[in-house]
């Protein structure tokens, strides 16, 4: 009898965690929940039938026969823009025989191995879409007033089910909901209009003139794919001329301001051009249709979610965690730090400041960034700040920081990409120590 009571008490005290999404971030959250004492195995909700999120290539664009939208933005010939040596989760290397820059299939295989290695799969509910997440205050005998989360999900037949959790990790990604800027007169354009989210391969564009809007990672990579397959590319963007040597066939231009009635595209510098295709490589919106942002004290805009303490949690609800929301980061290592910090908050090994203080801190940091000339839209871009950020999380939560060699190689590759945008992926690297890497070709 005594033993039974003990067991019951222990299981009751284990924290129940819901994870939304089984992409890289959700798998990472599940892996650490499973490893940590004090937590019940997580419930991972995954809309699709697979792990891997955006790395799970889907040839189809638009939506599935069941009406759900295709979320993956992966294109057929994509290779990683980070070498596997820094891209990996710090506790799980890619296979040693693989080259540094990998086709997307290898990343998908890696995430499947990660999932199976850490025994995550039995805890994933596939084909299960989270539709609503609501905080509910409950009164219990033993714990007094306590916040729980009601998570409502729909299975493949549309059956709804609501369950209660102590904490929720939002790992639903933010490269699925295309952001398309308003362009006056766009309805006059006679050709094809698409967003990079729906781009899969270059062949259909052979012999055509394609105006690519946006020259960030995907704008540049897709432009290079297109010219190699015989398209003519006009790469339009708002920024100073790119400091990269562009392959012949890509003409760099100022941004698109309007489409005239006769279908001509008008550019910022006053010139005009005609094209068969307008391809928006203009990024993605944040989108959390299952959250009531006002109720959570959050403002969710196209490119900003705020306030989030340490880019992870809303100060008013410190048991809701957004993993992987920052941009211009080394994604997997960043997720790994955020998840461990969040779990340390939950198990009490990190004590958060009071709500007001967290809000002030977020405010202060935003003001500092804006003061440095950062645009409102770019507040979640980390770039140089990412290393100090990860170190601070590690320090606060008492887990090992990223070895300095990760930053060093990341920065090396960033340089190489700038100088050799067409062929930096042919380079291969090897980690030598916690501070040193070497090039092996
Ligand atoms: C084209 C492209 C190229 C990239 N290249 C690189 C690269 O070279 N190196 C690199 O490190 N990173 C790269 N990235 C960044 C990439 O986004 C991250 O590596 C990582 O995959 C993000 O993982 P995630 O788990 O946050 O999101 P996702 O991979 O988007 O996973 C989110 C998951 O949540 C599920 N989901 C969403 N909504 C719901 C819901 N309501 N209910 C249940 N499940 C839901 C989705 O089905 C999906 O499986 C690239 C991204 C893109 C789009
Ligand atoms: C998302 O992007 C579109 C443009 O593509 C915009 O009109 C819309 O308002 C955006 N914001 C949200 C939060 O959906
Ligand atoms: C389209 O119209 C604009 C004025 O609106 C004109 O300057 C341009 O020459 C026209 N282009 C073509 C190809 O007719």
UniProtKB/TrEMBL annotation:
Keywords on record: FAD, Flavoprotein, Monooxygenase, NADP, Oxidoreductase
Instruction: List the GO molecular function terms.
Output: flavin adenine dinucleotide binding; N,N-dimethylaniline monooxygenase activity; NADP binding
Q: What is its EC number?
A: 1.-.-.-
Q: Which cofactor does it need?
A: FAD
Could you tell me which InterPro entries the record lists for this protein?
FAD/NAD-bd_sf, Flavin_mOase, Flavin_mOase-like, FMO-like
Q: What class of enzyme is it?
A: oxidoreductase
- Flavoprotein among the record's keywords? yes
* PANTHER family recorded: DIMETHYLANILINE MONOOXYGENASE
Family in the record: Belongs to the FMO family.
Q: Could you tell me what this protein is called?
A: Flavin-containing monooxygenase
- Source species: Cyprinodon variegatus
């Amino acid at each position: 009898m005594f033993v039974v009571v003990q067991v019951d008490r222990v299981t009751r005290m284990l924290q129940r965690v819901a994870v939304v999404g089984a992409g890289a971030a959700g798998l990472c959250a599940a892996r650490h929940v499973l490893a940590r004492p004090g937590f019940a195995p997580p419930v991972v909700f995954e809309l699709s039938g697979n792990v891997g999120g955006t790395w799970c290539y889907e040839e189809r664009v638009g939506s599935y026969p069941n009406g759900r939208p295709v979320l993956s933005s992966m294109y057929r010939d994509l290779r990683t823009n980070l070498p596997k040596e820094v891209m990996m989760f710090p506790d799980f290397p890619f296979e040693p025989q693989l080259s540094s820059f990998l086709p997307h299939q290898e990343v998908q295989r890696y995430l499947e191995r990660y999932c199976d290695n850490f025994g995550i799969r039995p805890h994933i509910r596939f084909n299960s879409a989270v539709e609503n997440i609501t905080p509910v205050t409950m009164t219990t005998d033993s714990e007094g007033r306590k916040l729980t989360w009601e998570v409502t999900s729909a299975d493949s037949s549309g059956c709804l089910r609501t369950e209660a959790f102590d904490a929720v990790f939002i790992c639903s990604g933010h490269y699925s909901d295309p952001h398309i800027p308003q362009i006056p007169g766009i309805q006059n354009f006679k050709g094809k209009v698409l967003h990079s989210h729906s781009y899969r391969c270059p062949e259909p564009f052979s012999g055509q003139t394609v105006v690519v809007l946006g020259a960030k990672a995907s704008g540049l990579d897709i432009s290079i794919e297109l010219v190699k397959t015989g398209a003519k590319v006009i790469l339009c963007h708002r920024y100073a001329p790119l400091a990269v040597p562009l392959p012949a066939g890509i003409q760099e231009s100022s941004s698109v301001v309007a489409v005239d009635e006769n279908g001509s595209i008008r550019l910022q510098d006053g010139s005009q051009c005609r094209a068969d295709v307008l391809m928006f490589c203009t990024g993605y919106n944040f989108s959390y249709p299952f959250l009531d942002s006002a109720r959570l004290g959050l403002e969710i805009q196209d490119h900003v979610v705020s306030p989030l303490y340490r880019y992870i949690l809303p100060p008013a609800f410190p048991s809701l965690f957004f993993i992987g929301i920052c941009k211009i980061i080394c994604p997997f290592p960043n997720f790994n730090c955020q998840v461990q910090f969040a779990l340390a908050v939950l198990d009490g090994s990190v004590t958060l400041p009071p709500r007001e203080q967290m809000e002030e801190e977020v405010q202060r940091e935003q003001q500092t960034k804006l003061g440095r000339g950062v645009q409102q839209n770019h507040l979640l871009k980390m770039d140089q700040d990412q290393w100090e950020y990860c170190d601070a999380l590690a320090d606060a939560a008492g887990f090992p920081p990223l070895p300095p060699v990760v930053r060093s190689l990341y920065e090396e590759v960033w340089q190489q990409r700038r100088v050799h945008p067409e062929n930096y992926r042919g380079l291969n690297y090897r980690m030598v120590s916690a501070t040193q890497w070497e090039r092996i070709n």
